[in-house]
Amino acid sequence: MKLRYINVSNDYDDIREIRSAIKRFNTEDKELLNDLTLTFKSYSLNDSTWVKSSAIIQKLPKISMDNSGSYLKKSHFFELSDSLGVYLVTVNEVLERNEIAPLEYVEPTVRKIILNKRKLDFIKNLERELLDEATGKKEFEIFDLKQDSKK
Question: Does the predicted TM-score (pTM) go above 0.90?
Answer without folding.
Answer: no
